[in-house]
Predict the 3D structure of the following.
Amino acid sequence: MQQPLLAWLAHRPLRLLHAAGAALGWAAYWGSSTYRRRLRANAARAGVGVAERRRSVAEAGKMVMELPRLWLRPHDEPIADPLAWHGAERIDAALARGRGLMLLTAHLGSFEVAAQAYAERWGTQQPMTALYRPARQPWLRQVMERSRHRPGLLTAPASLAGVRQLMRALKAGQTLGMLPDQVPPEGLGVWAPFYGEPAYTMTLAAKLAAQTGCALLLITVQRRPHGGGYDVRVAPLPEALPALQRGAGPEAEAAWTLAAATALNRAMQWQIDQLPGQYLWGYHRFKQPRQPEAAA
């Protein structure tokens, strides 16, 4: 039942999907008191006003409803909806350096579009490998894996094998896509401030950057109103990550890890603050990390 419904939704206009998604977002908001409390609390931590918080409720539903159109499009066809790049020259320059590129985004806007948009424009030059967590439902896992394996787009699971794959990609001068505000498994992060409260924060992005010298850029896919498509914005990090001093000892490395994670959280905050109405404030950012074996 699920896949025929997804296939039907994939052929509906984006304007209709976004309208239905807004209603879905509000239904989820009023249907779950836990989700409602978390969304309100997270938005309040960031100082988000009522208008932007209410907008984020509808935008979360739009994200869900636009996914079939994105996931199930034929691999040889471009993204169906209008898409404009802003700052694409930054990606051109980073790829020209030949030392690899890491594109970072929070759970913001149409972040699922980011990887496919990159692959469509630069995939033949340098493919992207996106870090992902497999869905628990088998049918959804199949759909997601089929969608994310496209020309110029590869995926790496959140596991030790996936980390090795990411390192190989960067050393080959390729591109990675990561969501640094995603809560990693236990042992793969540190507690660092995020909007003034400790949040378990991944260390992988900073460590890969330190080991390879790759370029780091922020990418945001902003959803246009009324199903009008997307604006993809590329920007530098608001501050450089601290340098890692080799051979400085475990205490110094631990201090660097915390400083780098904190800097990445500030970068995520800066990115979110540009578009607070499209952030997933209901995401369980401050939860306890899961055990590593659950992430394989």
Residues 82-283 form one domain. The two ends are 28 Å apart (CA to CA). DSSP finds ten helices and nine strands in the chain.
